[in-house]
Design goal:
The chain is mostly helical. 72% of the residues lie in helices and 0% in strands. The protein is built from 14 helices and no strands. The protein is flat and about 70 Å long.
Amino acid sequence: MTDILAAPATGSARGDAPAPAPASPAGQAQTPALTPVPPAAPTSPKILKTPENPKTPENPKTPENPKTPESPEILETPQTSRSARLAGLARLGRRVRLGRLARRAPAVVLLAATWEVLPRTGAVDPVFVPPLSEVLRAWYDLLLGGQLLEHFQASLVRSLTGFGLAVVLAVPLGLAIGWYRPVADFLSPVLEIFRNTSAVALLPVFILILGLGEPSKIVFVFYACSWPVLLNTVSGVRTVEPLLVKSARSLGLGPFSLFRKVILPAAVPTIFTGIRLAGASSILVLLFAEMVGAKAGLGYLVQDAQFSFRIPDMYAGIITISALGLLFNLLLLAVERRFSTWRTT
């Protein structure tokens, strides 16, 4: 009785079925039905490839994929696509410029042909209007001799100095007059007096006060260039769309922010119109000043060639003046496009 209570209860003692004994390796081989069934092996990638799923994660590189890492020239990245767009825009810009040049070149070619033909046919006197080929030959001789470069440099320095001073001083003054009513009321009488006085009429005054040197010529150019810049700047500020000003004020912009973000950008096209007019005036009035009292400059070259009856040299100086004015205007147009990038037209 005591032995039975001390021993662990077995299945035979409780009346249950006998518990299976621990199976040995040999026993496992002898009783295969009692081992757990292993899960089914995964099927091969070839069996999973169906027409509905031709690309499986196990085999991402398939012949159907036209863009693979092995062909980097086909692969597009943001950098390559941006470069392609920029290259396309550059090609389009070149085509547009060539188209404009092709439309404008015939008029220049016709003028040059007329200048060459009329003196040779006797329609005009070749003594006073020599053929264009002779004028170009004289221009080349002046260039080789160094005289043309000397006169060109002297005129360019005077013109740029007077023009630069006019822009630096007239633009801020015009902005102040156009934006602040008290400044306009104070300066308007004096400005109206000098605005209606010709710059050529004041040249003797400049010469008497400043002499025949460089200061009188620079001040003369400065005076002539100031008025187009000043008047166009005042007009540009005063003709800003009133609706823009009201909208900006309704958004809470202060006077300084309103002037900087609305008034000044809207006045830029009109300001640059005055600057371009001043650029043309800087060359025209300078030639007159150089003809009165100077020893160098394009105006002096033209007058000296006329007095010496070197007619081809005179026309060579005139062509150089025209080329200088054209280059000056193109430079100002490029600067205007740089400061007016917000404009759509």
